Amino acid sequence: NKVQCPNPIAPTGYKIVSGSGVSYLNYRNMGCASGYAPLSSGVTKMTCQASKTWTKPSGCTLVDCKSPVSGTAYTFGTGGTLYGSSRTTKCKSGYTGTPGLITCQASGSWNYGSTNTGKCVKKSCGSVSAFAGCNAVSGSGVFGDIKTVSCINGYQGGGTITCQASGAWTS
Predict the structure, then answer these.
(1) Taking the model in full, what pTM does it have?
(2) Are 47 and 29 in contact (CB under 8 A)?
């Protein structure tokens, strides 16, 4: 009687592409499962052995999304870069908002998007109050905004004020 192996089960990271039979030296051609990529050496097959077991395939590795690229308003926490890894987002200095979470996808890219990167908006400095001896500066501003201040008769100076990352106007 020819040796028989049990029906093959693809190990994590692999899928059976083709092949049939469960007798000695029957084989299955293997491919990489979703979220896994083939190594340059290629993917090996599974073969039924005299020991009634299947050889283990090799040649697939988890997809690597590489380090995520921070946006204008947010940055990412530390963490892995392989398929399934997640990174939290946080707002950069001068921004405020709700943190988010991105995840490395099977395609090898991060799932960027406003629902995943969080909602970071520029901090508000509120309304500008008049400075002694200066013309009233109207309006409010957000981080990075610049307002011009001019002096009234009898005073010297003037210039600009800037909404800072802290949410306060320069003096």
Answers:
(1) 0.70
(2) no
Query: Measuring CA to CA, which residue among 143, 142, 144, 140 is closest to residue 127?
Result: 140
CA-to-CA dists, residue 74 to 71, 90, 110, 164, angstroms: 5, 5, 15, 17
For the chain, 171 residues long, give each residue's pLDDT as a single digit of tens: 789 999 999 999 999 999 999 999 999 999 999 999 999 989 999 999 999 999 999 999 999 999 998 888 888 999 999 999 999 988 899 999 888 889 999 999 998 876 777 788 899 987 776 666 777 666 678 898 888 887 888 887 778 888 899 988 887
Residue 74, token pair as written in the block? 């947010």
Q: Quick count: other Cβ atoms within 10 Å of Cβ 46?
A: 23
